Amino acid sequence: MAAKRNLAAALGRWSAEHRKTAVFGWLVLVVLVMTLGSSAGQVNLTEADYGTGDSGRAERILQDAGLTEPAGELVYVRSDELSADSPRFTKAVADTADALEATGLVTRVRTPDTTKLVSADKHAVLITYDVKGDPDTAADRVQPVIDAVEKTDAAHADVTLGQYGAATGLKAINDSLGEDFVRAEYTALPVSLGILLAVFGALVAALLPIALAVTACVGAIGLLALTSHVVPVDGMTNSMMFLMGLAVGVDYCLFYLRRQREAGRDNATALQIAAATFGHSVLISGVTVCVAMAGMFLSGLTVFEGFAVATIEVVVIAVLGSMTVLPALMAMLGDRIGAGRIPFLGRRRARRAATGTPRRDSVLLRGVLARPAVFALLATAFLLALAAPALGMKTEKLGTDKLLPEDNPTVVVSQQIEKDFSGSPAPASVIVKSADIDSAEMKRAIADFRAEAVASGRTGKSIDVTVHAKENIAELSVPLAGNGSDATSKEALTTLRETLVPDTVGKVAGTTALVRGDLAFSVDYNDQLKKSIVPVFAFVLGVTFLLMLFSFRSPVIALTSILLNLLSVGAAYGVMTAVFQHGWGASVVGTEGIGAVESWMPLFVFVVLFGLSMDYHVFVVSRIREAYDRGATTRDAIAHGIRTTAGVVTSAGLIMVAVFAVFGTLEMQDFKQLGVGLAVAVLLDATLVRAVLLPSVMLLLGNANWAAPKFLRTSRPATSGGPAATPTAPERAAAGR
User: Fold this and answer.
1) Is the confidence at residue 731, as pLDDT, over 50?
2) Do residues 581 and 594 touch, judged by C-beta distance below 8 A?
3) 459-462 long-range Cβ contacts below 8 angstroms, 24+ apart
4) Please, what is the average pLDDT of the chain?
C-alpha cells in the first residue's frame, strides 16, 4: 500500500481517517504555542549582540561593567545668514538646550561653548546630548525630545534645527520598516489569493492554502517568542518570517492540492496518491530548506542565527501542516473543495477533468525535446550574462544615509553634519580597560594618545575622554577624518587600530584597548562575513548534495541540482549588482545606484535561495522519477515530469515572486535589495531553469541520470507505490504521445 511506503503517506492516511482529531489538534497546537509565546514575550538582540571582532568585544566590556553607553544624539543648528556668535543664533542655541533639558529625558547636554563644535564657515554648530536609560530602547522614548526640538525650530525662523544620532536614526529606520512591513503583509495576502484563484478556479481551493499558511505563520511566531529566550532575534524577524512562511506554506499546499486533482481517481485514492508522492516531496523539500538555513549558524553572527531559527521553525510547521491537517481538510471537504467556482476558469478545468483530456505540450517543451543542446546552451549563456556583473560586486555595511531614501529628514541632517563637521556623525570610540585607570602612567598614555591622534591628521581635534574610575575603564571619543564611512575614514580607523592605540594606551601593562563605533562595527562585520563565506557555502552545498543523493539515489541528479541552483544564485547576484551598485534600471524599483550591495546580502540570499529553489527541483524531478520507475524511457519520463508540473511550478513561482517582490517596495535599501534578488532568482528558477535548462541537461545526460554505485541502488526511498504507481488516464494518454 502507498500509505505504508513512506512517512508522508502514513501521516496523510492517518489524518484522512482521523479528520476531526487532525484539524482540531492543529488548531489547539497553534493557539497553545501562540499563547505561550505571548506570555513569555520575545527577546530581541541588544546592541552588544550584533557586534563581532574588536568592536563587539568592546561592546561586551562595557555591557559586563554595567556601562552600556547611552544613545548619543546631535542637534544641528545652522543659519546661512547668521554667524554662530550672533545674538539671535546664540539665543536659538540656548533655547534648544533649555528645551532638551525640560523634557527630563536627556542628560549631558553640551553646547558649543564647551565642545567647540563650530563649523569652519562659522554658520553651523552642534549641540550634543545623551538619551537617558537603556540605549536599546531609546528609539522608543525619543519622540518627546524630537517634538521639543521641532517646536524650538518653529520659534526661530532665522535658523534651522535638525537631529541625528543613535536613537533618532534607529527610530527613523523602525518607523520606515514598521509602516512598510504592515503594508507588505496586507499586500502579500490578497496577491497570493488572486493567483490561487486563477490556478484553481475555485474559492474554497484557493482559500485553503492561505488559511493553512497563515495559521502556520501564527504558530511559528509564538514558537519564535519561546526560542528567542535561547537565541535572541532581530526586531524585524517576525515580519520577514511571516512573508517567507506565507510563500513556503502556500507553495506546499498548492503542490499537494494540484497532485490530488491530477490523480483523476475517487477522493480517497487520489488523496493517497498525493500523500505518497508530493507529500513525500514536501518532506524532502522542507528538510532541504531547514538544512540550508542551518548553514547560517556557521556565520558567527547572532542576527543570522535568529533568522535561521525563525525560518526553520516556520518551514517545519508548514511541512507538518501540509502532511497532517491538509489531508484531513481535503478528506473532510471532498468534492466541496471545488466550491465557489470562478466562471470560465472553473468550467474549463472541470471539463478537462471530466473528459480526461491531457494538456498539450507547449511550443517551448517541444523545442527543448527536439533540440536540447541548443536550449541548454542558450539558457546557460543567458544566466551567465545576468551573473556577469557579480564579478565586480562590492559589499559594505550600509549606514543610515544609504539605508533610507535620500530625502528622508534623518539622512538630510546626517549629510549636512558630515559636510560641516568631519567625522562628527559617527566618531570612533576607544575603550580602555586597565588595572588602574587613574594611574599616572595611564594618564600620560591617554594624553599621548590625544596629542598623537591630532598630530596624525587622521582625526578631529576634539577628542573627549570619559573615565569610569570604579570600573577602571576609559572611553575616548575620536572623530575620524572623512565622512565617517568613506575611504579616508577607513584609513583613519586602520591608523587608529594599528598605530595610535598600540603605541600609546596599548603599551600600558595589563591594559586592553579596543576600538568601537559605527565604522569599526561595519569593518568587523564585513570581515566576519568574509570569513564565514567558505564554511557556509561548503556546508550548504555538501549537505544539499547528500540530501539529493539520498532522495533520488543518483549522484548525477544530485550534482546537476547543485549546479543549476548555483546558476540561479549567480544570476540573482548579477542583477543585484547591476541595479543597486551600478544603478542600471534602479528607477524601476524606486531607488538609485548606491555603489555597493549590503554586506550581509550575498550570504543570506545564497542560503535562502538554495533552500527554497529546491522546492521546485524536488517536485519536478520526483515526477520524472515516478514516470521512469513505471517503465517510461528517460525522454518520455522527462516530458511527463515537465508537462505535469509546468503549470503548478509556474503558479507556485508566481506566488513566491509576488511575495518577495513586496520586499522590493519597501523604502529600506537592504530589504529592497533582498526583494529584488529573491524575486528575480525565483522567477528564473521556476521558469527558465526548471522548464528549459533542467529538461535539456537531463535529456543530454540520458540514462546517465540514473547511474549509481551499487550501494545506492539497493534501497531507494519509495515516493510512489500501490495506487500511486498506476498512471491515470490522462497520464497514460500523455505518456504515449
Assistant:
1) no
2) yes
3) 459/423, 459/492, 459/496, 460/421, 460/422, 460/423, 460/424, 460/427, 462/115, 462/116, 462/117
4) 84
Local confidence band at 5 (pLDDT 50, 70, 90 cut-offs) = low
Percentage helix, strand, coil for the chain under 3-state DSSP, each rounded to 5: 70, 10, 20
Separation of alpha carbons 357 and 166, rounded Å: 64
Count other Cβ atoms within 10 Å, centred on residue 394. Answer: 11
Q: Who's near 385: CB < 8 A, 6+ residues apart?
A: none
| Bridging pattern class, strands 512-516 and 428-433 | antiparallel
pLDDT at 512: 92
Q: Is the pLDDT of residue 390 over 60?
A: yes
Whether residue 1 has pLDDT greater than 50 = no
Q: Which residue has the cell 530625502?
A: 407
Return d(Cα 461, Cα 84) in angstroms, integer.
19
Phi-psi region of 264 (alpha: psi -120 to 50; beta: other; left: phi over 0): left
Closest CA to 445 of 495, 501, 515: 501
Q: How many CB atoms lie within 10 A of CB 200?
A: 27
Q: Is the distance from CB of 209 to CB of 253 less than 8 angstroms?
A: yes
Asked whether 127 and 50 are in contact (CB, 8 A), the reply is no
Average pLDDT of span 295-313? 89
Neighbours of 455 (CB within 10 A): 10
Tell me the pLDDT band of 264, cut-offs 50, 70 and 90: low
CA 708 vs CA 268, 346, 542: distances in Å: 35, 44, 18
- pLDDT above 70: residue 357: no
* Four-residue CA torsion sign, 579, 585, 587, 588: negative
Q: Quote the longest CA-to-CA distance of the chain.
A: 96
- Residue 726 pLDDT: 40
The secondary structure of 452-520 as a DSSP string is HHHHHTSB-S--EEEEETTTTEEEEEEPBSSSSSSHHHHHHHHHIIIIIHHHTGGGSTT-EEEEESHHH
pLDDT at 732: 40
Q: What is the pLDDT of residue 424?
A: 53
CB atoms within 10 A of CB 244: 28
In order, the DSSP letters of 325-351 are: HHHHHHHHHGGGGG-SBPTTHHHHHHH
Pairing of strands 71-78, 160-165: antiparallel
- CA separation, residue 623 to residues 106, 558, 620 (Å): 65, 16, 5
More confident residue, 273 or 390: 390
CA dist 661 and 680 (Å) reads: 9
Question: Which residue, among 545, 567, 574, 562, has the nearest Cα to 689 in the 3D structure?
Answer: 567
Locate cell 497532485: which residue?
259
Give the containing element (helix H, strand E) for 399. none
How far apart CA 221 and CA 216 sit, in angstroms, is 9
How many C-beta neighbours within 10 Å does residue 725 have? 16
pLDDT average, residue stretch 438-450 = 91
Q: Are 233 and 49 in contact (CB under 8 A)?
A: no
User: For 134-185, how does the pLDDT look when each residue is reduced to its tens digit (9 = 90+)?
Assistant: 887 888 899 999 999 999 999 998 899 999 888 888 888 888 777 777 777 7
- Within 13 Å of residue 381, how many CA atoms lie on the same side as its CB? 6
pLDDT at res. 725 = 39
Q: Which three cell numbers stand for residue 86?
A: 550672533
* Burial of 364 per CB tally in 10 Å (0-12, 13-18, 19+): middle
Please tell me the distance from the alpha carbon of residue 437 to that of residue 434, in angstroms, as a whole number: 5
164, β-bridge pairs:
74
Residues found in the chain: 737
Q: What is the pLDDT of residues 652-673, one digit of tens each?
A: 888 888 888 887 877 788 888 8
Instruction: Name which of 596, 387, 592 is nearest 584 in CA terms.
Output: 592
As a dihedral over the C-alpha atoms of residue 500, residue 502, residue 506, residue 507, rounded to 10 degrees, the angle is -110
Query: Average pLDDT of 103-129?
Result: 89
